[in-house]
Amino acid sequence: MTAIPFDNSYARMPERFFARTDPSPVSAPRLIRLNRDLARSLGLDPDWLAGPEGLAILAGNRIAAGSAPIATAYAGHQFGHLVPQLGDGRAILLGEVIDRDGIRRDIQLKGSGPTPFSRRGDGRAALGPVLREYVVSEAMAALGIPTTRALAAVTTGERVIRETLLPGAILTRVASSHIRVGTFQFFAIRGDTEGVRHLADHVIARHYPEIAGEAQPYAALLSAVIARQAALVAQWLGVGFIHGVMNTDNMSVAGETIDYGPCAFLDAYDPGTVFSAIDEQGRYAYGNQPMIAQWNLVRLAETLVPLLADGTEAAIRIAEERLAAFGPLFESAYLAGLRRKLGLFTERAEDRALAGALLTAMTENQADFTLTFRHLGAAAADPVQDGPVRDRFIDPTAYDAWAMRWRERLAAEPQGAEERRRAMDRANPAFIPRNHRIEAVIEAAVERDDFAPFAELLTVLSAPYEDQPAFARYAEPPEAHERVHRTFCGT
Ligand code: AMP
Ligand code: MG
């Protein structure tokens, strides 16, 4: 008998933290994809999960032994507006397991039917967004960026009603937790300070055990979340990722990328880029993400105020001191990332301006973000290789002017060309989940029940820093007619 060794700490929290809710069965589940490596890392038997018992669990048709299904409560600022109650409206936490590294992981079904938090929604997910989240979250993991993971995708055999009828699907999501800034807000806005404290203690024990013994554990918690978010957003910018809907309910206090809705990767570099169809003001544009992360962290700090000091004024002072760290932490992580992308091992004061000049030239010349940096690796070793970089610029001389400065700077580096090249290839992916590729995968699956493009894209994206000559076409930006201008959250 195989089983999932559940140990459900969140379901042992006070009852007001969640609603006990079973998934709703579906008529004809079919396994589209099982992430076998991830299953093994969770200590689960992939063959069993892919078999009839596993499929029934992944489809919500059967409650696994030891599972304690719950929909968690949270609130959140959506596009700057506070919504006092959101919660898992189309997701159900099956439970937690301790993985091979000793880390507690949530196993959650997304699209498994209504919960008390569904409001007017159906609790279901369409196949397209499930495949999108699967592809992009696994790509992020392979890029080395903290993220929730995709354990499985199943189709339900049922249709969901969106603008049209679409095939329904369920994603099994794995996360180090699903606790969000909005989870803290849920209790804070109800004046439930004990709820906030209970949640904070849980988060410290679970995600930041190193601060448990500190004199000011809640201030330390705030600092720890700030540090992880600063590092995370710096990594996003380094690969051209746009989250698309950085509401406070979509920001994990564990510092993982969570909630892949209308997310997208830049093709041409432009910090003002917005893909999300619902982001009319450009609030969540690529270049706004650090500022928005900080805004969200201020909302987190507000929830912690009653725990930070006896008097409100003293507490606010502590919160402000801690929040002030975000800017410098982000800047230094971002700059460190840019240095790696440019092949710089040492630090010089002029590096920020050097990187900024390249980014400005790229914006003015619609240069592809990923390929420009990828090709810089070869150009660093040999100026004869400038061609592929120059070709990314509408006016290639814009690159030439910058490259002179860059080469002067490289000359001051102690590393050899080969070492630099290898380091740059590890910092500059060749393959990202480009929007037009994701759209093609979704179209094949939804229109033709063809999942081969999905599988192939996953294969390519599992090794983003390798050249993979057989898949070179996947590195290319879209042709004009392939370009995706808008992405949708798909709820
Ligand atoms: P999201 O835009 O995915 O961050 O979701 C925002 C809120 O809407 C969350 O509370 C979700 O649970 C809820 N929601 C999104 N889609 C659905 C759906 N199809 N049915 C019920 N609730 C949903
Ligand atoms: Mg969400």
Q: Give the termini distance in whole angstroms.
A: 37 Å
Structural class: alpha+beta
N-to-C SSE string, H for helix and E for strand? EEHHHEEEEEEHEEHHHEEHHHHHHHHHH
H/I helix tally: 17
Provide the gyration radius in Å: 23 Å
Would you count the extended β strands for me?
12
Beta-strand residue percentage = 5-15%
Low-confidence stretches: none
Overall pLDDT, averaged?
97
Bound molecules: adenosine monophosphate, magnesium ion
Outline type: globular
Sketch the major β-sheet: 6 strands, antiparallel
Helix percentage range: 40-55%
Verbal overview:
This protein is of the alpha+beta class and 491 residues long. Among the domains are: 10-178, no CATH class; 182-333, no CATH class. It has 17 helices and twelve strands. The chain has helices at residues 36-41, 46-50, 52-58, 127-143, 181-188, 193-207, 217-239, 289-308, 312-323, 326-342, 351-364, 369-381, 387-390, 396-411, 417-427, 435-448, 452-461, and strands at 18-20, 30-34, 70-72, 76-78, 81-83, 91-98, 104-110, 125-126, 149-161, 165-175, 241-242, 264-265. The strands form four sheets. Strands 2, 6, 7, 8, 9 and 10 form a six-stranded antiparallel sheet that branches. A two-stranded antiparallel ribbon has the order 1-3. Strands 4-5 form a two-stranded antiparallel ribbon. α4 runs parallel beside α17 (452-461), α6 crosses α8 (289-308) and α7 (217-239) packs parallel to α9. 47% of the residues are buried. The mean pLDDT is 97. Adenosine monophosphate is lined by residues 86-90, 117-118, 121-124, 245, 249-250, 259, 261, 489, 491.
